[in-house]
Amino acid sequence: MTMDSPTGPPVDPSAFRKAMGSFPTGVTVVTVACADTMHGVTVNSFSSVSLDPMLVLVCLEESSRALGLIERAGVFGVNVLSAGQQDVSRRFASRHRPAGPAMFDGVPLEAGATGCLVLAGAAASFSCRLRQSYRAGDHLIVLGEVVTLVHRPELEPLIFHAGTYKSLEHESRRDRSAARRLARDPGAPGQRPHRRAA
């Protein structure tokens, strides 16, 4: 059995970007310190890869300054932002942020075991040793082995969906409000009326 190649007009990049926006993701800041240089960049292409060994990946634009620094340092950090860190995400996503250590002015940091930069208040932080990188179109897939981690399960993660920031805390409050409204009005639209036992 053979499959015909799909035909039709090529996919428009802006349509592709919008469609991918329907997939909610967390938000991370990838950090690296090399010699007297420090750098951070907001990334939402982050995933676990393996448990044995513990591997994660991030995807970085091939023009990203972080790539050369990670290759030189051999280590990098991935900080999963918490719901209250929208300003941190915007800071490290800005093309106009200052370079070097000034990039982290006013951003609380903690010492990482491998020399990685750990952002205080992140929901989780992974200090990684660079394993390998792979070219994929206009990005590089950077594979890291997790050396140490910090996890703060009490913090809700920051969510990015359809071009806006959201939080699970906000969504759960909305769900609880809806549940309270339904409790007051059990006959509200979309609700199945309770049947009495015969």
Protein model, in words:
This protein has helices spanning 13-20, 65-73, 86-93, 168-184, and strands at 25-26, 28-34, 37-43, 46-51, 54-61, 75-80, 109-111, 117-119, 124-136, 139-151, 158-161, 164-167. With 198 residues, the chain is α+β, with helices and mostly antiparallel strands. Strands 3-2-6-9-10-5-4 form a seven-stranded antiparallel sheet. Strands 1-11-12 form a three-stranded antiparallel sheet. Strands 7-8 form a two-stranded antiparallel ribbon. Strand 9 and strand 10 (139-151) form a beta hairpin.
Given the helix and strand composition, which structural class is it? alpha+beta
Strand order of the largest sheet: 3-2-6-9-10-5-4
Give the CA-based shape. Answer: globular
The largest β sheet comes out as: 7 strands, antiparallel
Q: Count of DSSP helices?
A: 4
| Total number of domains | 1
- Fraction of residues in H or I helices: 10-25%
Weakly predicted, low-confidence segments: 188-198
Shape-level CATH architecture: Roll
Instruction: Look at the structure and name the CATH superfamily.
Output: Electron Transport, Fmn-binding Protein, Chain A
- Rg (CA only): 21 Å
Distance between the termini: 57 Å
Report the strand count: 12
Beta content: 35-45%
Main CATH class: Mainly Beta
